[in-house]
Design a protein that fits this description.
about 600 residues; alpha+beta
Length: about 600
């Protein structure tokens, strides 16, 4: 089974140092102790952390840093979790921040130890590997590779650029060596000797490989027993097909982590705030309150968990006959309805410390799975002696389903490339998604609390914005093309749909406005280019037949010389160089001179 208590998997024998030591001293400590992270403390307080990834970053820069204090390059502030947290929360932090180490502290912020991906993997039980058959299902197929004649510092640069923990040296698709962050840590102390070296000079060989059809369970066992952090994956011919790291193995933990998150959300979303001061001394007032509850099941027991009071909702929740509920043990009631009695044992322990216990469970009712949120609390007498227990249960099935839908919608919005803005009724920004941040260059913290006016470019008329507000305030959706300005001053075109979120309490009210936009700058640029090309062509066509410049013409016969030196009749030249057409006639002067008899 998976060990959930981090106290059981915590590495307490940590290595720490002062942030004033040099980088060379820090790397020497890491190499000597074969550790991937060095904790830096000052006056018993956590100052920072220095990891193998930091070493790769420094090595690639090739600067003189050996004598520089390690605090210059350490990561800070250090991400920490409290010792009372569990492995799911630790995994969540590792996944969210894309890190491999978490420092564990107590309530007083004193360091208790450190947990890494290795610690989590070493404590995964057999059931974790059931869903996987071979390592080909979880391995990383896009392997960072290089040739053996590539310079070492160039290879380290590729590792830093791709945030890779290693780089495989291959020849004709066969792995012949590997260079890891730990290798970089080992080599960096002699950086002056590394400048002319290639990866072939320093790579670790032979490569530790494993066949892609090996089971994930056997692979994890091999890695654990040999303290391998990665294995190169090959096929039957020995060709490189992938790489398997501790990060790949721990990915399978994600499903259990999601289940854990859902449980936490349910408990936090549905708090039951009603309290019962004393069931032993019931009053008419209290009794009426309890009986009038229509959606919360209420049960009170003695210190031995025997039911002493229940309301009508509780009877419909568990049994049809109220008489069967009175006097029954809550333990038996849980067993009859397939509810884990561990909830009761945990509740007893917590309530004795004057705290409430909250939990969630499922019931199969009429072939339908329903979800419930519960809060159990102590009933204390006037002398502060525990006299019984109170249990309040609420059906949260609809809310749970709605939450599932909201989670899906939120995920779509968060990962969508479109820009989404949510403003309150006054036009003040409440939320923007990552698509907005990527498009505009503004972070969410920079725009929240402000209005979308920060995007105005001044290219649109006042009448445009008046129509916008007139449309959305009438409860309709506005569609239009905006010319806005990014944080860096660049203009961009965006096709936006702005719609109000309406509520009806006797009259129409707008609580928020949602803007969904798509960047059409490239499309506009193409359209503008096409229009310019058409205008240029039309202009060229209109002028291509126009006679321009000086025309050599014979003073005697009136012939015109063309650009090839030939003399042409005037009418022929004009026909060739324009759209004009000739018809023949005689002017009055020539008529009188040539044909006087016809006058």
């Amino acid at each position: 089974m998976i060990i959930n208590d981090i106290k059981e998997i915590l590495t307490t024998n940590i290595v720490s140092a002062s942030p004033e030591i040099t980088v060379a001293e820090g790397i020497s400590i890491m190499t000597k102790n074969k550790i991937s992270a060095l904790i830096l403390t000052e006056n018993d307080e956590l100052s920072g952390i220095f990891t193998e990834r930091d070493v790769v970053r420094l090595a690639n820069r090739k600067n003189e840093f050996h004598k520089t204090p390690i605090k210059t390059f350490m990561s800070k502030p250090v991400l920490t979790r409290e010792i009372n947290d569990d492995v799911f929360q630790i995994y969540g932090l590792l996944k969210e921040k894309k890190i491999r180490h978490v420092v564990i502290v107590d309530a007083n912020k004193e360091i208790q130890g450190i947990i890494s991906q290795t610690d989590i993997i070493n404590n995964l039980g057999m059931e974790f590997y059931v869903d996987f058959k071979t390592i080909s299902q979880i391995m990383t197929k896009n392997v960072l590779t290089t040739k053996k004649d590539v310079l070492l510092f160039d290879a380290l640069g590729e590792m830093e650029k791709n945030s890779a923990s290693c780089i495989v040296i291959e020849e004709e698709n066969l792995p012949i060596g590997i260079l890891s962050e730990r290798d970089a840590t080992r080599l960096i102390l002699n950086i002056d000797d590394l400048n002319p070296k290639t990866v072939g000079d320093v790579m670790t060989q032979p490569v530790k490989t494993i066949n892609e059809e090996t089971s994930i369970y056997d692979t994890a066992k091999i890695m654990k027993e040999n303290a391998f952090r990665r294995l190169v994956v090959v096929n039957e011919e020995g060709s490189l097909t992938g790489i398997l790291t501790q990060s790949d193995i721990v990915k399978g933990f994600e499903g259990k982590y999601i289940e854990y998150l859902k449980e936490i959300i349910n408990e936090k979303e549905h708090k039951l705030n009603e309290t019962i001061n004393s069931l032993k001394e019931k009053t008419v007032y209290l009794d009426n309150i309890l009986r009038s509850s229509k959606d919360v099941a209420i049960i009170a027991t003695d210190v031995n968990f025997n039911v002493k009071y229940f309301n009508q909702v509780a009877t419909s929740l568990f049994v049809n006959n109220p008489k069967k509920l009175l006097g029954i043990s809550l333990i038996d009631l849980y067993k009859q309805n397939n509810i884990d009695i561990a909830f009761l044992l945990k509740a007893k322990e917590i309530i004795e410390n004057h705290k409430d216990y909250k939990f969630a469970f499922e019931l199969n009712q009429d072939k339908e799975i329903k979800f419930f949120s519960a809060r159990m609390f102590g009933i204390w007498d006037k002398c502060s002696k525990l006299d019984g227990y109170g249990l309040m249960i609420q059906d949260i099935t609809q809310t749970f389903r709605a939450k599932e839908q909201m989670d899906k919608l939120s995920s779509v919005i968060e990962h969508s490339p479109i820009s989404v803005i949510i403003c309150d009724k006054n036009g003040v920004i409440d939320y923007v998604n990552p698509g907005f941040e990527k498009l505009t260059g503004y972070s969410a913290s920079e725009v929240e609390g402000k209005t979308p006016n920060i995007l105005k470019s001044g290219k649109l008329s006042l009448k445009f914005y008046e129509k916008l507000w007139q449309t959305i305030l009438s409860g309709k959706t506005f569609q239009g093309t905006f010319i806005d300005k990014k944080k860096n001053g660049d203009l961009y075109y965006e096709e936006k749909y702005i719609t109000p979120i309406n509520t009806y309490f006797g009259e129409l009210k707008h609580t928020h406005f949602v803007s969904i936009g798509k960047d059409i700058s490239a499309q506009k640029k193409a359209e503008n280019g096409r229009e310019k090309l058409i205008n240029d062509l039309q202009k060229a066509l209109s002028t291509i037949k126009t006679l321009r410049g000086f025309l050599p013409i014979c003073a005697s016969c009136k012939k015109i010389r063309d650009d090839k030196g030939y003399w042409n009749q005037v009418e022929q030249y004009i026909c060739d160089h324009s759209d004009a057409e000739f018809t023949h006639s005689i002017c009055p002067e020539c008529m009188e001179k040539l044909y006087p008899e016809y006058l």
